[in-house]
Amino acid sequence: MVATLTSATKFYKENYPRPQFVRSQWIDLNGEWDFSFDDKQTGDAQRWVEHFPIGQTIHVPFTYETKASGIGEEKFHPQVWYRRTFTLPPEAEGKRTILHFEGVDYKATCWVNGGWAGQHEGAYARFSFDITDLLQPGAGNEIVLKVEDSDSCLQPRGKQRWAGRNHDGFYVQTTGIWKAVWLEHVSETRLDSVKITPDIDRQMVRFDFRLHGAETKPNLRLEAEITFKGEPIRKLGLSVDRAWLTVETSMMNGINGPWLQNLWSPGNPNLFDVEFVLYEGDQEVDRVGSYFGMRKISIKDGQVLLNNLPLYQRLILDQGYWPDSHLTPPSEEALVKDIEAIAEMGYNGLRKHMKIEDARFLYWCDVKGLLVWSEMAAAYEFNDEAVERFSREWVEVVQQQYNHPCIITWVPFNESWGIQNILHDVRQQKFTEGIYHLTKSIDPYRPVITNDGWEHTVSDILTLHDYVERGEAFYETYKDKSLITGGTGTYNEWKFPFAEGYGYKGQPIIISEFGGIAFKSEQGWGYGNQVDSEEAFLERFASITGAIKSIPYIAGYCYTQITDVQHEVNGLLTEDRKPKVPLEKVREINLG
């Protein structure tokens, strides 16, 4: 498996942290930082902001728990500090300098040259600080970051352990900077964001612009040029007099060939480039490159539709771990290698499990045509604090990932994690309903699954998890649809498809976890009995996959999983991405 970094988009820059919002002036701050543990939490009192202790160095963006960081200590530390210096280049003069963090787990407080820059709570959403007024010209500028983490099950933590050791499906925790850190030089008046919404039925695309500094500038003009494979499609211009601006434009004129051939789909992932230029009078003040895909996800008559055609989803569970860097991808090539392996095995998509993935991963799924279910990292207890933390960060995530055409489903909850009493508890039921509708208020165009695999409340898809080993047993359980959808009773001995008071409303049904087959190992676990040969593995894999495919009302499946993860050894690939069975044989079973 060799990763291919041939991009289909005009503005692609290798390793650029936000491929959907590209500017020319930026500084990569990944690399060596000073680092110190603060187990006694004395850093504030001892003014580490001004007198950072001489200690270790760490390779950002890898966390101290990983070998890639240069430290590799797996013990939990509740507070850590980072420091590095940088040089402000001449081109930053007259610009605003924005410090971006793509992901810091969990609570980050930042100072620049001793001055407070900002604070953010949440491990999975990105955030930024305008640090212009704290900078000095040239060399010697200093960033200090304090990160506070906990083993609390009230904070969204996904698959991170909290008991000091790996157990079940929970792995070494992630503390601190785990995604890219970078600087960007921008104008005072600029684009803050663009929300891009395709509408294939009306053959239109809508841009919702959010601008900074527009209210005080009476002579602003915004231009956008859309191109497709280098050919101009549409150019539009409009006057700007407020911070929020919406415009729609036709996508028909100028496109060569039948319209349907230019939609985005796994087999044909067409992407349109778009460049936004903001002018103040005749002077250009901002230029941003982006892209989008014209595609539609909808549900009708118990089926998921892609571009108004039935979509059978062949997904694989992907937890996004690597042996030496854990949740942080070791390189952009590593991301692409995983995506290409998934496609090579005959899957048309993935369920990104308990992790908000790097934006570059989603970019390559957009480029290569791989469907994605985006799933939030779970908390594991329920009270008002957990509700507040989860809701705040989930909204940030949905807003930040909205433009990616590859994302076709939102999954805020999985297997009742953090809502463990949802079967009976009205508060937890209403929480999931609230998150469902809150998500729909931001994005009414994608399906939302409220409790993947277990007791659903309101949900656009009914998803079920079942790790039965044999296809014959699976078929007997699921051959009669009414036994699954007919009431609130259990299926497969103890699982409930719906919480009390909720029932089937004609949703598509997908088996969103199954399989988990592991070869015999003394070092880890899988689901069911372990197998001792390639032949035994493929026979069982074919048995259960074939049974699912043979049931007409099931609209797709998600196999567990692409790779081993630490002590969980049920991947189709090892943790270091070596195939356990020939990938072409997996492909034959998936596509047969």
From TrEMBL:
- SUPFAM superfamilies this protein is in? (Trans)glycosidases (SSF51445), beta-Galactosidase/glucuronidase domain (SSF49303), Galactose-binding domain-like (SSF49785)
Q: Does the keyword ATP-binding apply?
A: no
Q: Name a Pfam family for this protein.
A: Glyco_hydro_2
- State the Gene Ontology BP annotations: carbohydrate metabolic process
Checking InterPro entries in the record gives: Beta-gal/glucu_dom_sf (IPR036156), Galactose-bd-like_sf (IPR008979), GH (IPR017853), GH2_Domain-Containing (IPR051913), Glyco_hydro_2_cat (IPR006103), Glyco_hydro_2_N (IPR006104), Ig-like_fold (IPR013783), Ig-like_GH2 (IPR006102)
Listed A to Z, the keywords are: Glycosidase, Hydrolase
For this UniProt entry, the molecular function terms from Gene Ontology, in alphabetical order, are: hydrolase activity, hydrolyzing O-glycosyl compounds
- All copies of domain Glycosyl hydrolases family 2 sugar binding, residue ranges: 28-147
Q: Which family does it belong to?
A: Belongs to the glycosyl hydrolase 2 family.
Protein name, per record: Glycoside hydrolase family 2
